[in-house]
Amino acid sequence: MPTGIPPGPESPAEAGSTTAVATQRTPERPADRTSMGRPVITARAAATFEPVGRSVATARAFVRDTLQGWGLADIVDDAVVLTSELVTNAVVHAGTSAEVLCLRDEDGVRIEVIDRYPERELPLLEPGQQPASPDREGGRGLLLCAALATRWGVDYTAADKRVWFRLNLPERPVGTRTAGPALPDNALPLTDTRVHVAVIQVDRSGAISAWNEDATELFDYPAEQVIGKPLTDLAAWPHTPGTGTGVAEALRLSRWEGSYGMRGADGRTIPVYASHLRVRDSDGEPSTVCLLVREHERAILQSPPRVHARDTGTASDGNEPTAADPFEVFIGSPAPDDLDGLLQRTVERARDMLDGDAAYLLLATDDETELEVRASTGLPSARQRFARVPVEAGSGRYGSARMPSVHEDLTVVPGAVPLLAGTGMRSVVTVPLKVEGRLTGSLGVATEAPGRYTNEEALRLQFAADRIALAVERARLTELERLRRGSLSFLVEASDLLAGTLDRDQTLALMAQMTVPTLATWCAVYTVAEPGSEPKLSYVLHEDEDRIDNLKALLAKVDPPEPVPTPGARVWTAPTDAAHSAALRTSLRSVVMSEEDHHLSPGTTLATAAAVGGETVVLPLVARNRVIGMLTLGKPTDERFRQEILELAEDLSRRAALALDNARLYSERTAISQSLQRSLLPPELPEVSGGVEVDVIYRAAGEGNEVGGDFYDLFEIRDGIYGFAIGDVCGTGPEAAAVTGLARHALRLLAREGLGGPAVLERLNTAILDEGARSRFLTLLYGEMRPQEDGSAELKVVCAGHPLPLRLRQDGTVEPAADPQPLLGVMDDLELYEQTVVLDPGDVLLCVTDGVTERREGTRMLGDDGLADVLTTCTGLTAGAVAARIMRAVERFANDAPSDDMAILAMRVPE
């Protein structure tokens, strides 16, 4: 296969090739050639299409968008017609995939259609041969090539067949362009007294790099405030997020025209018509130049519609329309699955076709009982997107949107078309969109002048609606499928996030963050502590963080919604009414707010009103048959929720309610556990006479939701004598906590009765066994400490099944300070004894629970020997420093979180 431009019959050498030669309309100019005899290719684009019928329309869209992006609007129609016929031959008749290659040079474009069926030869025209009859079944694509192309031909190889044609740009004097006819003054488009054309340049990343004075006049933003910000922060794209082409995608196209909204400094959305052109500077850096005017001044920028005047024949297979089909002329070439682009293009073309002032399109809900506003042009901002009207209350002589209708003057029949109430429109024609007899939507065109439309216009509009109804329904079903899949993915992710936390505040934050901006512009969560109590505003979030404080202040003024358990979303008008009232007072006074509104800044009141001025809905948070809160979702001015979003929000609210209730129960349980755990530990350590240093570190395992386990105590028995204890109850939970409380309080009581250590532990053992089935065995180290006048300290200790205490001498030697004895809570008759240990100045006594010595990393365990090794490095340290070093060593021994409670009691006699 040759590379670059395939050889054509343009020289004697090429004439001997296998290329079929068509008749030539105009000779090629010398400018078409370089010194090597070939055009200089300045741009190239290629795409491959599968052998299915819809590929023909996709190929037409590819060629149209490519040539318009290259600025070749003068030859777009011819190129699209020829491409449509040649691709049809390949993918429909030959049944193979087709590759379309567009080559641009200085004087025109060459388009090649390559298929994989070289055996199927095309009928050729010899020089001077007359074309066959146009009534014959085959060969019409070649007739069109002969009629429209500058040159054309066919190349055969063993693997494929390449049909190509060339279109030269028409010659025209410099400075001349296409022009419209002369019109009377009263037929000219309406504009403001001073027309502002905003010129905005956007860099490769989508950030604004240039902003002219007219842009400031239109949107009230000074250049220094917006330079560097993404254009998407200011653009209010009318399409649903996740469907169709968005601003970011439009900025990447070579050329794009269309309508969308720009948010002004006051928060209101300004409808604009924009023309985007992608350029590059001398360094090759791409950027996009955007020209914007007010939407009603679109005629200044809008390219004139180009309707091919030639008779281009019929569709190749009876199903796929050609480029001159009214469907193609009517809507242009949006992407096949771009529903919003298709609908917006439809209303714009419908308005232009009937020379109307406004147009709108509504889609029917699944049950066909309501119509939902999906696209409009020329209507005031009060016509909210996704607003709904009943089908039977729609326009029409028969009171239904299922029939075409013409209203010569709406003032005669007030309310006939609810969507147009208060817009100033007088004459309107509406037609239904139907697929297989089923109502799928309604298309309407209106004008401010009465008596403008008759049945003739209704027939024209109905013909266009019939041609587009199936495409709209296909795109709508594609969008619904995408939304359903996206909804499932969203709910799965939301469930995972909500299940990943049991913290109440974090659950509230997740609820709001998942809804903003995916489902709503702002969100507020109210919680109900007890049945019958007043709902409390617990969390507020807005997609613009600068408006959160003002929104919170506004909602604080409004009575909270009623905690009604009825499922589903219900409209709540209080925030919108409060915002509009505050904005009205500010507008009337243009000064500082009244005293009751002192918390709302006058400079932001209008913006806040615009931000919350749309539809607001409330969904109950019901868990375990009780309303525990409300999820409030809001839209900015002139926006409403679509039904699919409300259904998704309802599913989310059920999951969020259960997660919030689980977090509440967990928080209550944690609070109870922590309170009980604190009651099992001494509130504070007493001051020991003689200067003996005592320090304790206690570290509970887990997340604080269990009680029991390890405990410690240090208390004064009588003057100069102190009791200390450190123990570990088997297990956790209420039973272990009961033994812990029994042990700590019994130790104090028995010790202060004057009993010695063995007697204290023997009676404690009896008390534990008396608990019966609730009893737990207990390891306990108990001792009495008497500071001596010579600076030492005498200790009498009993170690009942507990890890042995370790004594650190000043010379760094470590030795056990007691012998092991039986643990408590197992045997009735215990014979315990106490041992006396004297701590000299500088000595340290270290007592720990088994959570320290049994710290594990894989098969390794710290053990008694490892603890002793760490303790040998603690000579000269204070009691607090010794305890801290031991704890650091234990934590560094393993990477995993501790699985058992740990208590460390260190006592040191000062030197």
TrEMBL record:
Coiled coil: none
Biased composition (Pro residues): 1-10
PROSITE patterns named in the record: PAS (PS50112)
Keywords on record: Hydrolase
Species, as recorded: Streptomyces iconiensis
Residue segments, region Disordered: 1-37
Pfam assignment, any one: HATPase_c_2
Entry protein name: SpoIIE family protein phosphatase
Residue ranges annotated for the PAS domain, each copy included: 199-229
Biased composition regions of type Polar residues, renumbered to the chain: 16-25
